[in-house]
Amino acid sequence: MKRNHLIKPILDHNYPTVSHGKGIYLYDTDGKQYIDGSSGAVTASIGHGVLDVVEAMTEQASKVSFAYRSHFTSEAAETLAEKLSELAPGDLNWSFFVNSGSEATETAMKIAIQHWQEKGFERKNRIVSRWTSYHGITMGALSMSGHVSRRKRFVPLLEDFPSISAPYCYRCPYESSGCKLQCANELETSIQRLGSENIAAFIAEPIIGASAGAVTPPDGYYQRIKEICERYDILFIADEVMTGIGRTGKMFAMEHWGVTPDIIALGKGMSAGYTPIAATLVSDRVMEPILKGSKSIMAGHTYSANPLSAAVSLEVLAYIERMNLVQAAEEKGQYLLEKLHGLAERFDIIGDVRGKGLLLGLEFVSNRSSKTPFDLQDGITTRIVNKAFEKGLLIYPASGAIEGIAGDAVIISPPLVITNEEIDSLVKILEASVEELQHELHSEGLI
Ligand code: PMP
């Protein structure tokens, strides 16, 4: 059979063909076993092959898979929205369903803009974001993203939204003056420069994922951000596409800091990869002028709120609660974090270990004491990811934020169902991969 019609991530790369999955493992058609150490793209949080989800899927599909949302509502979508309003903090009582994280952040942006328009503030339409961030691949989401390598090609077509520094403590630009949360204060400076009458919202990932590898802000950061947003009448959008639904040891990562956003974007963990579904959660306060005004959100997709995906997501949420997986993320995360610190003690090329729950990251450096990053051309992230892959471990590459400044990082984020013994196996393969890489880099004269 001719096999060159599918556009794959890297066109000339020879990908193995996946056969099936069970728990934390995936298998290819040659019978090779892989530990899914990143839950794919931080997605498969309940593990693979969960039959309860298959049953829920079959049951819903046998009744109805699709009914257009302009014609019908559905029991599954209504119940899912109700469930999310119970789980979400504060008055985030409304859900708008979409199909991917990019659509969820793009919709968050549109709802924020619409909120102000309905109140008569037509010009309040810029979104402030951060460098070293990723909010999605569609043009609006990319305009809000500070992931240099993903946006570079499209820069002339993107909205020129303002960006501030990320709370990247390992490479803090304000290090010499001590932490006074200046990275958060940059938001205030940015608002003062642009005028709050021109800004709809500030968007941030609670813990930075794809662009830098589980970069976690200092305590007090989000409290300060929220204060500034309130002072200047700017909405706060938390992009919890990667962090949401238990991944970090809380249902929503913002709970770590006790801060309630106005809008939350969710994706990945909502269905744990079983079907595409994502959501934009909106507070009563944000909805109020829309309910009084045009009474419709100007966003949506053909598959929005389809009953099949909603039923799957409901079962995934029920499974997470039944199996206590939010607590598991916290406990297993602690165990894995200690093991990763152990690796960092052994290998000098590991500069930083970070993250919360089962969203953990490693950053690689050529010199640990000066924190010197590798040259991006040396492709260290790709090399470590490929080495682990060959040995049967999947990890997630998370570099490309700021070329030449912060370089190589990976995310380790196994399914929340992982056991301590399975964590030991994961770490063993990771250790062998880092050891081999460090050895090679020595002989190549790169360290
Ligand atoms: N926001 C965040 C924080 C993400 O991590 C991602 C995906 N890596 C997205 C948005 C985009 O989600 P999707 O790939 O489902 O469009």
UniProtKB/TrEMBL annotation:
The keyword Cell membrane does not apply. The lineage of its organism: Bacteria, Bacillati, Bacillota, Bacilli, Bacillales. This is Aspartate aminotransferase family protein. It comes from Peribacillus butanolivorans. SUPFAM superfamilies: PLP-dependent transferases. The keyword Transferase applies. It holds the Pfam family Aminotran_3. GO terms for molecular function: pyridoxal phosphate binding; transaminase activity. Keywords: Aminotransferase, Pyridoxal phosphate, Transferase. Belongs to the class-III pyridoxal-phosphate-dependent aminotransferase family. It comes from the Bacteria.
